[in-house]
Amino acid sequence: MVFETLDPSYWRTLQEALLTLTNTLQNITRTGFDDGSRIRSRVEWLDDGWIRVRVDTGSALDISLTDLLREFSRTFYNIVELNSLVLSLLNEIIVISKISLFNTSITANTNIFSVDLSPTRSPCIFRIYVCFNASGVLSVVRTKGGVSVIEQLNSGLALTANAAYVFDILVDADESINLQYSVDATALKISVVEVKVN
């Protein structure tokens, strides 16, 4: 293994950092003292790239700095890989809240949201939870390239007043959606979340 550095004092700085770390670990893990209340273990830097850890005057453990750095790099790489995996898994399962309304007056056949909802990731599913105080037909207003179409949900049948419904709407790139209700009503609850499509 070859290590290169532009800063010739790098290895000395690394050695000092390792010695500081070792001293800290020794202070944390003290198990024995000599008669002068000093720690029985000691760390020495050997010129040939080894660190010698003396536990007491009769025994010592020599550790290769190269092996130690290799293990540190493996551990660091595994931590980075684990973080990357966790982030990618979170990206797969995270649900993004798009909008939530509570006890809000709705005007018949007009867009419910002041701004159309666009996907953060596409394609995706917008999961829509709705509950209205009056019976009516719920529609999705889908817009793409300045052209809007209206799609009725629940097979075009009126929703029952005060009953909750959940709908999944596929939304592609460059599309946005809004909702309309066929009668004046109070939206007891409307919640739209984005769910990633695998």
Characterize the structure shown:
The chain is of the alpha+beta class and 198 residues long. The protein has 2 domains: 83 residues, no CATH class; 101 residues, Jelly Rolls (Sandwich). The protein has 2 helices and 10 strands. The strands form 3 sheets. The chain has a 4-stranded antiparallel beta sheet with strand order 4-10-5-8. A hairpin with a 3-residue loop joins strand 1 and strand 2. The two termini are 42 Å apart.
Order of helices and strands: HEEEHEEEEEEE
* Alpha plus pi helix count: 2
Number of domains: 2
* Number of DSSP strand runs: 10
Q: What is the H level of CATH, i.e. the homologous superfamily of the largest domain? A: Sf6-type phage tail needle knob
The end-to-end span amounts to 42 Å
Concise overview:
This protein has helices spanning 10-28, 65-93, and strands at residues 42-46, 50-56, 59-64, 96-106, 124-132, 138-144, 147-152, 164-171, 175-181, 185-196.
